[in-house]
Amino acid sequence: MRCDRAVLTILLVLAAAGAASADGTAAVRVKDVATLQGVQPTPLIGYGLVAGLNKTGDRRQTVFSAQTLANMLQRFGLIVPGQQIRVENIAAVLVTAELPAFSRPGARLDVLVSSVGDARSLQGGTLLSTPLRGPDGSVYALAQGALSLGGFGVGTAGNRVQVNHLNAGRVPSGALVQAAPSAVLPGEGVLTLALAQPDFVTSRRLADAINAELGAESASTVDAATVAVRIPETYRGAIPDLMARLEPLTLDVDVPARVVVNERAGTVVVGGNVRLSAAAVAHGNLSVRISTRFNVSQPAPFSERGQTVVVPDDQLEVDEQEARLVTLEEGTTLEAVVRALNALGATPRDIIAIMQALKAAGALRAELVII
Predict the structure, then answer these.
(1) Which contiguous run of DSSP H or E holds residue 214?
(2) Which domain holds residue 365?
(3) DSSP-derived pairing of the beta strands 367-370 and 258-262
(4) One domain for residues 226 and 145
(5) In terms of DSSP bridges, do strands 108-115 and 168-177 run parallel, antiparallel, or are they unpaired?
(6) Nearest to 334 by CA among 371, 362, 365, 368
(7) How far apart are CA 21 and CA 256, in angstroms?
(8) Are 56 and 155 contained in the same domain?
């Protein structure tokens, strides 16, 4: 319980430290919040095999992994019918990666490998050469290499210990780029910057920062996510130089009031400018435990009509912890929220319930996001 509260407090304090000022703004670079529209990464996907598993691969239910191995062996001159292959050290996987814009042949990418069969673990496996295709069906990269899972699993005779997820892993720098999709930059006229998170205030501040650098009326706000920049005469045909000048510029990003809750992991992150209306919070835990013990009733010795029967003995225990009342004043800041929640001795699970109740009561002046 203490560990959970400590983790929660750290998350809240880090969120508070991330706010640069009381009005919820934070100074960041242009390259961290906006990208050149029309130039985006390309998602890649491929189907392949992981070999070298210690009898933790696909079993007989997954027929396509054996067929894939048979097809691969046929290319090496070995004719083996797929239905006759009985191995458990291979696994069929999907391989995904993202090809950044302007990548060139010879560059390397990290790839994510995920099992699609009934393999128990990919631990110790090696990804065999797998072509990665783009949305147009063209092969842009080849992936292979040893998997890194970040966990392990051991077990015998029905007992098993597992750390982290073992059916997905990464191959760092495991894909070699073979080709790159064409990316055309605007040579003259107007280029468009797209914000990663649309916001009218941030869009206006981005245009102001560019105007301060290039001159008045060089940039204008199109909508909450788009800023149009007129290309100066000196940068006609030299868009990379213009972007290198704009990307280091800084602006104040307007941060929305938001509380993010991961109910599965028990994680709560509160934004820096979250405020509360006047409210009083009382939280207590009611636990009910019902246990049943089965006693055996036997007849007296040499009894003719007696029978041995099982008699259930039900026990009911109710334990309600004392609720503590904490009053939150109008406009309460994040720091006060942290102190109040710690004073309640609340765990992350308690915080989730409290935040949802405050939102339902209209006292939480923030967007509540549950992931």
Answers:
(1) helix 200-214
(2) 2-22+257-285+324-370
(3) parallel
(4) no
(5) antiparallel
(6) 365
(7) 13
(8) yes
DSSP 82: G
| Total structural domains within the chain | 4
**Judgement on whether residues 305 and 360 belong to the same structural domain of the protein:** no
Residues 154 and 208 in one domain: no
Q: 120, 56 in Cβ contact below 8 A?
A: yes
Print the SS3 string covering 86-147.
Answer: CCCCEEEEEEEEEECCCCCCCCEEEEEEEECCCCCCCCCCEEEEEEEECCCCCEEEEEEEEC
Find tokens 């400018």 and name the residue: 273
pLDDT at 142: 95
161 against 11, higher pLDDT: 161
Cα-based angle 333, 345, 363 (whole degrees, multiple of 5):
35
Nearest partner of 274 among 14, 26, 24, 1, judged by Cα: 24
| Structure tokens, 248 | 């280091």
> Model-level pTM?
0.64
> From residue 160, how far is each of 163, 164, 311 by CA, in Å?
10, 13, 36
Maximum Cα–Cα distance across the chain: 113
Alpha carbon distance, N-terminus to C-terminus of the chain: 23
82 and 134, same domain (yes or no): yes
Report the C-alpha gap between 95 and 103 in whole angstroms.
19
Burial of 294 (0-12, 13-18, 19+ CB in 10 A): exposed
Instruction: Report how far residue 316's alpha carbon sits from residue 301's, in angstroms, rounded to the nearest whole number.
Output: 34
pLDDT tens-digit map of 242-286: 889 999 999 988 878 888 887 777 777 777 777 777 777 766 654
Q: Which two tokens stand for residue 241?
A: 């130089």
